[in-house]
Each structure stands twice: as structure tokens, then as C-alpha cells.
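Lab notebook, design round three. We kept the backbone fixed and only want residue identities now. Task for the bench partner: fill in a sequence for the structure below.
Input C-alpha cells:
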């Protein structure tokens, strides 16, 4: 029933349209046009302050209780002028950019399901489709959605790899930004008069815990910025990091550890530090007995696959939907090695992802 060739062509079309976070206007114009072809009215809601366009929302009338379908349209860098290359059952980029399978496989799957519903005149549940922007920068687009956008029995977020996996649990995340202030001086003439902020930051970073702390918790420093020239002692440096955990107490512990190390190190070396902590999103865990999980499991079995229940270490729009009171699980659509130039899409898994989603929205036993 799924038009396999059309589905894959849609995916290739989507990845050729540049859509870095906050720069999604072109891909949204394409999606708005495709929704209009299906006779669906859509609107843009919740535009991020830094962005050029908001989230695209369309409603699809049906019978029963409304469910939400979600995928994000933005990609990470390097993500300009992506050239999809098909080799057998896989699609790669040319190696100079990411592919954008995260999350344009999910977007393509939703579009294909909507097309099949109309063409085959299938009875289905009422749907609200939410294509979000700026997901890759901290779920910003979803966080900007108005409360009315979250009205639904439950939500399916297409933002995972294998179509037989049901992601029912995800961690919370907090970000930390520290500005360390030293003292500038000429590096060759009067180095003793300066206080190297980069060195102080390096000492602090070396004392922190990073990577996988335990099975529930991770920590990372991902950005360090500072310095003006090689002959100037840097008087200011900014470091940015994060911690994630399925356990709120462990998350707080990691953030406090970072803050403590920064404060103690700066005090010891005579530097000043300003620290800002941002709670990005909450964790979630959906019970396996929940309707959304049972419906997903049935749909996967109907597609000839065996359901696997997983937790993830990453965040997604599902965190925001769950926090808004809409039970949400994450399903897969064939993306692999995301956020790298080796990213690829598995064609068979994209097709199976579409079959699973179609099975879910046409399940007449759900009430």
C-alpha cells in the first residue's frame, strides 16, 4: 500500500533543501505546498525568537480520538547543499555533509502516510501533524508551541533508527555556561602581569567527570571560546556543557559537580566566574501498558516485525510533548550514525517505518 518509490523520492527531495536550525523557511514552504495538495489546511505556530519561521501544523479529520504525529525538519551542521547518493538499499551523503536522515526520514514517512490515507480513502483516526523547527538546538521549536497544539490522546514522534523499536524512556537535560574572567597582558613583554583565563578553564575541565557516568547519566563539555591573539594573555573564556540523566538527583549531582569545580578552581587561581544553568527538558517514561505503547506494538507486529522496547540517552520533541501531558513514544524510520558525515538511511527501514505508522493510524480497535 505504501508507494515505496514515492516515499524514497520524497526523502531525497527533502534532504536537498537546506534547513539548518532557525533556517527552515524553504523546507517549510515545500511541506506547506504538499499538505495543500492533500486538501489540508496548515498554519505556522510558535516561531522561535532566533528563527525565520515557526512550526507547521495541520489537522486531518477522522473517526475516534485524535493523535499527534511529530517530526522535526531542521538538521545539524555541516548541512548545506546535501547530495543524497543511493547505493543499493542505503542512502548516504557525499561525505562532505550530514545526510539529514535525522529527521527527514520521519518527515517523509508522515507525508507518505497522509498521501496513502487520501488515495486509498482509508478509515483512520483524527490526526494533528506537527512539523517542528529548531529541535537540534534544544527542542526550541516544540518549546515555543502554544498550549492548544498539545491537544491529543497521545503522540508519535518519528525520530529514531529502527522501525521495530519503541522508545518509551528518555533523560532530562540541563545545560551549563560558565564565563571565566582573568586579566589581559602582553604575552611576550609582561606575561607575569596577566591571568590566563583559558588556562584556568583547562584546569577546571581536567578535573570534571565526562562521558558515561553510569547507565543513566552522561556529561560533556562541548564548546570553549576565548582569546583574541597569540600575543595577548586571554582575559575571558566561555565554556558550555551539559549533563543528562534519567534520574533527577543524579542530574543535579553532575551539574553541581561542574559548578563546584569551576568555582573552586577560579578562586584558587584568582579568576572570577559567572555560571548559568538552564533546564532544557524533563525526562519521561511511558508504561508498557499504556495505550500508545500497545498500539505501537500491534502496528509493529502487523508490519511483520518484533517489537523491542528501548530507552534513549538523547532528547527529542517527545520530551516536550510528554511534559505537556501528552503520552508520547518515539518510533524509528531508518536513520543511522546521525550528526556525522557518515550518516545514512536504510531504505527498507524507511518503508517499514511508514508501514508501522500507517498501521497505527488505521487501527480501528483503538478507542
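Proposed sequence:
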Amino acid at each position: 500500500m505504501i508507494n515505496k518509490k514515492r516515499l524514497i523520492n520524497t526523502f531525497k527531495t527533502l534532504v536537498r533543501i537546506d534547513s539548518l536550525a532557525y533556517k527552515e523557511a524553504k523546507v517549510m514552504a515545500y511541506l506547506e505546498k504538499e499538505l495543500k495538495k492533500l486538501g489540508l489546511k496548515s498554519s505556522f505556530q510558535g516561531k522561535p525568537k532566533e528563527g525565520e519561521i515557526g512550526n507547521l501544523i495541520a489537522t486531518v479529520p477522522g473517526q475516534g480520538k485524535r493523535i499527534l504525529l511529530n517530526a522535526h525538519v531542521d538538521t545539524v551542521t555541516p548541512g548545506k547543499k546535501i547530495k543524497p547518493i543511493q547505493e543499493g538499499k542505503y542512502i548516504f551523503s557525499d561525505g562532505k555533509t550530514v545526510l539529514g536522515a535525522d529527521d527527514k526520514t520521519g518527515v517523509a514517512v508522515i507525508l507518505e502516510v497522509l498521501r496513502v490515507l487520501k488515495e486509498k480513502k482509508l478509515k483512520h483516526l483524527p490526526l494533528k501533524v506537527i512539523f517542528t523547527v529548531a529541535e537540534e538546538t534544544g527542542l526550541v521549536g516544540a518549546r515555543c508551541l502554544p498550549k492548544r497544539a498539545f491537544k491529543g490522546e497521545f503522540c508519535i514522534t518519528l525520530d529514531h533508527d529502527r522501525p521495530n523499536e519503541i522508545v518509551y524512556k528518555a533523560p532530562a537535560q540541563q545545560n551549563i555556561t560558565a564565563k571565566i574572567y582573568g586579566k589581559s597582558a602582553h604575552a611576550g613583554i609582561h606575561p607575569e602581569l596577566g591571568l590566563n583565563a583559558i588556562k584556568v578553564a583547562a584546569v577546571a575541565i581536567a578535573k570534571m567527570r565526562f562521558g558515561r557516568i553510569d547507565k543513566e547519566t552522561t556529561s560533556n563539555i562541548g564548546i570553549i571560546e576565548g582569546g583574541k591573539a597569540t600575543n595577548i594573555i586571554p582575559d575571558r573564556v566561555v565554556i558550555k556543557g551539559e549533563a543528562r540523566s534519567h534520574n533527577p538527583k543524579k542530574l543535579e549531582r553532575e551539574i553541581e559537580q561542574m559548578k563546584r569545580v569551576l568555582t573552586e578552581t577560579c578562586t584558587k587561581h584568582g579568576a572570577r566566574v559567572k555560571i548559568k544553568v538552564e533546564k532544557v527538558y524533563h525526562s519521561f517514561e511511558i508504561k508498557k501498558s499504556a495505550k500508545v505503547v500497545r498500539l505501537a506494538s500491534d502496528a509493529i507486529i502487523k508490519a511483520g516485525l518484533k517489537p523491542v522496547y528501548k530507552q534513549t540517552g538523547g532528547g527529542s520533541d517527545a520530551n516536550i510533548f510528554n511534559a505537556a501531558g501528552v503520552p508520547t513514544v518515539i518510533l524509528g524510520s531508518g536513520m543511522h550514525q546521525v550528526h556525522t558525515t557518515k550518516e545514512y538511511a536504510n531504505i527498507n527501514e524507511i518503508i517499514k517505518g511508514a508501514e508501522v505508522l500507517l498501521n497505527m493510524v488505521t487501527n480501528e480497535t483503538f478507542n
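Keep this in mind before ordering anything: The two ends are 24 Å apart (CA to CA).
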